[in-house]
Amino acid sequence: MSLVPHSGSDRSLEELSKTSLPKISVIIPAYNEACTIEACVTSVLESTDLSVEQLEVLVIDDQSTDETAAIVELLQASRQDNRLHLITGQPRPTDHHWMGKNWACTQAVQQATGDYFLFLDADVQLQPGCLETTVAFAQKEQVDLLTFWLTILCGCFAEWLAQPIIANLLAAGYAFDQVNDPHSETVFAVGPFMLFRRSAYEQIGGHRAVADYVLEDVELGRRIKQHQLKLWYGIGHDLAQVRMYQSFSALWEGWTKNWHLGSKRNGRRTLYTALITILVFTVPWLGLLIAVIEGVTNSFTGWTIAAIALSLIGIRLHYSIRQLTQHLTNIPLRSWWLTGLGGLLVSAIAIASIIKVETGWGWTWRGRSLVNPASIR
Fold first, then answer.
1. pLDDT tens digits for 189-237?
2. Shortest CA distance to 137 belongs to which of 242, 25, 235, 29?
3. Rg of the chain's alpha carbons, rounded to an integer?
4. From CA 198, how far away is CA 248, in angstroms rounded?
5. What rounded mean pLDDT belongs to the chain?
6. Four-point Cα dihedral 95, 101, 105, 107, nearest 10
7. Distance CA 356, CA 358 (A)
8. What's this model's pTM, rounded to 2 decimal places?
9. How far apart (Å, rounded) are the C-alpha atoms in residues 131 and 251?
10. DSSP assignment of 121-139, as one string?
11. Which residues, 6 or more positions from 291, have their beta carbon under 8 angstroms from its beta carbon?
12. Which of 218, 259, 268, 365 has the lowest tally of Cβ within 10 angstroms?
């Protein structure tokens, strides 16, 4: 098994994984994750034979209203694995505004005993050897925060439309070399998989320090760089996979929650992204449709033939873009022809995100309001 490019490492992971590993605390914050928590926890436990002295898996139930906690309890009873622990999350303190999973992670850290903390979303599944590989790599490269692109699984139609295009846009905005350059202000982190050296996590203040941030993953990465610690961002398709959203409504809520914040609440930048997405991904298909209809209903003139040719060139470019960025997501190329509709959906997400973030109207995650009375970050 090999880790990702951009590592600068000259040793194989097979060699690295044989080294002596420190204790790892896998922390899984879970709020209404009944659909995914069993597969996630099972994948972690079955991905490694590390002993209880080297691994603990802490599932923190963040006041779920579904069967999340009951499912984990059944796993404990059936597997009898001493590495698995369920923590009952407490209500959020009222003296501070806690966003997202920050309060859950903060509670779990108080009980974690590992030298490395791996914060894992409940919709992630690890592949065999992932923990040994990533921790050994982090040790060798002296990485304080390791995060990477996972294989992105698509199930519902909305995922096939949006996820590849969103990955293209993120790839354009967050180059590996820039993110990994300690002198660059460019910061990115993949929230579903964030592996911290414990000492670095504590040095930057952990999730408590970013309690009121919705994009806590990016802010934690920024603080790693600000403290002159090492952030490493790459690709790990053979190490883990994630199905981010189970439905259109979940995808819509998730991306509209984050998109405008990712542009640092810069309205012009968000609208520019929406415009470029329409022009690049939707206009060629629309131009082809209009030109073909015009040619069939009237006649194929030089102008209609030219429009068809230009549209086909743009559409061919879509396929080339998908080929170039497939190394990020590992999403199969078979959905590339959906880019016209996908461009419309992603542009709508960007515009809706402005409205939600700036007004607070409908700005939620899993039904929980994200409006911060003091500030929105």
1. 999 999 999 999 999 999 999 999 999 999 999 999 999 999 999 999 9
2. 235
3. 22
4. 37
5. 91
6. 40
7. 6
8. 0.90
9. 28
10. -TTEEEPTTHHHHHHHHHH
11. 304, 307, 308, 311
12. 268
Q: Which ranges in 130-215 belong to alpha helices (H)?
A: 130-141, 157-173, 176-180, 198-203
Q: What amino acid is encoded at 305 in this protein?
A: I
Residues 6+ apart with CB under 8 A from 266: none
310 token code pair: 């230009």
* Per-residue pLDDT tens over the stretch 67-121: 999 999 999 999 999 999 999 999 999 878 899 899 999 999 999 999 999 999 9
- Check: CB of residue 343 under 8 Å from CB of residue 282: yes
Residue 57 in tokens: 């898996």
The total number of residues written for the chain in this structure: 377
55-61 β-sheet, strand order: 84-88, 55-61, 24-30, 116-120, 193-197, 145-149, 231-235
Q: Which residues pair with 149 in a beta bridge?
A: 235
Evaluate the CA torsion angle 337, 252, 147, 83 in order and state its sign: negative
Closest CA to 176 of 163, 165, 186, 166: 186
Write down the number of H helices and E strands in the chain.
14, 12
**Helix, strand, or coil here: 146?**
strand
Could you tell me which of 345, 105, 336 has the C-alpha nearest to residue 245? 345
Q: Give dist(CA 44, CA 84) in Å, integer.
A: 10
Q: Which of 260, 261, 280, 257 is closest to 172 using CA atoms?
A: 280
Return the bridge partners of 217, or none. Answer: none
